[in-house]
Amino acid sequence: MSVLPAGTTTAQAKLIQRALNEKTSSNLVIDGNLGPASVACLDSFQSASGLPVSGCYDTATAAILDPFIAQKYLSASSYSEAAGLLGTDAATVQTVCQVETSGAGFFNNGQCTILFERSQFYKAMKAVTPAAELSQLVASYPNIINPVGGGYLGGEAEWGRLQQAQTLNSDLALRSASWGLFQIMGYYYVQCGYQSAEAFTTAMQTSETLQLDAFVEFVKDENGGSMLTALTSHNWVSFAEQYNGSNEHAQNDYDDKLARAYSALV
Predict the structure, then answer these.
(1) Last residue of a domain, which of 72, 96, 111?
(2) Within a domain: 83
(3) How far is residue 138's CA from residue 163's CA, in Å, rounded to a whole number?
(4) Predicted local confidence at residue 252, as pLDDT
(5) What is the full per-residue pLDDT of the chain (266 aa) written as tens digits?
(6) Which residues lie across from 184 on neighbouring strands?
(7) Where in the sequence is the domain holding 68, given as residue range(s)?
(8) Are 47 and 91 in the same domain?
(9) Among 43, 72, 101, which residue terminates a domain?
């Protein structure tokens, strides 16, 4: 018997694996191939949910996981809908999230994908903190507040850095992390259609649909439409400089990564 119902696409299988990772605290490779490791996670989920352990994605299992998947993750059609709002093709939208997060707006444990920027937190805190106190903070917490970027732990460990920064100033800490599929910095909450950094980051932790909506609003609003023009015309150099900043773009060949990702998708 096949693990998945007939007609299940690879994209759908990947979403099932992502859901199983979160629901069973696992770290499956998201490849759309439900082999022995995925089946073991499926069995674990069925057992914990009080379902018959069938070893396949049966109707009872789908009744629980399908609504969860639909609420939290994006479907292929979501990219097309966003592309329509931006006046471009779905591959262009997918390109940005592939380069930013490899297409996952949540870590395996279900927490929103983030990256905490200690240099941005330093800049934000500098505006509201006396110089002597700021120097003490840098000395005491160099990994979360620092005029020099870096200090990344990567993955889910970034949440520990953010939460430590929140003990110093929660609002500015939220603004100093990048969020979701498209890694939009929290300080852009207004451009994304929110009234506060807290409201923006709460939404980013809710679903990839809201992450995608924020990207659409951000691109349409930023730089008086210049970013949107660069994106829709596939001027990757201009888009990269506006989206990630000229320094980041120069250091990481961001435009080349975008160009390669787009070519692979079309």
Answers:
(1) 72
(2) yes
(3) 16
(4) 72
(5) 589 999 999 999 999 999 999 999 999 999 999 999 999 999 999 999 999 999 899 999 999 999 999 999 998 789 999 999 999 999 999 999 999 998 899 999 999 999 999 999 999 999 999 999 999 999 999 999 999 999 999 999 999 999 999 999 999 999 999 999 999 999 999 999 999 999 999 999 999 999 999 999 999 988 889 999 999 999 999 999 999 876 655 557 889 999 999 999 98
(6) 179
(7) 10-72
(8) no
(9) 72
Is pTM beyond 0.90? Reply is yes
Q: Contact, 82 vs 215, CB < 8 A?
A: yes
Distances (CA, A) of 61 to 16, 42, 220: 11, 9, 40
What CATH number did the domain enclosing 39 receive?
Answer: 1.10.101
227 and 114 housed in the same domain: yes
Structure tokens at 89: 């093709």
- The CA R_g of the chain, rounded to the nearest whole Å, is 20
First to last CA, the chain: 35
Contact 150, 118 (CB under 8 A): yes
Nearest-angstrom CA–CA distance, 83 and 216? 9
Same domain flag for 45 and 21: yes
Q: Are residues 36 and 88 in the same domain?
A: no
* In-domain check, residue 208: yes
- The pLDDT of residue 245 is 79
Q: What are phi and psi of 114, to 5 degrees?
A: -135, 165
Residue 243 CA to chain centroid, in angstroms? 15
CB distance 239 to 255 below 8 Å: yes
Q: Are residues 126 and 107 in the same domain?
A: yes
E strands within the chain? 114-116, 177-179, 184-185
Residue 2 resides in a domain? no
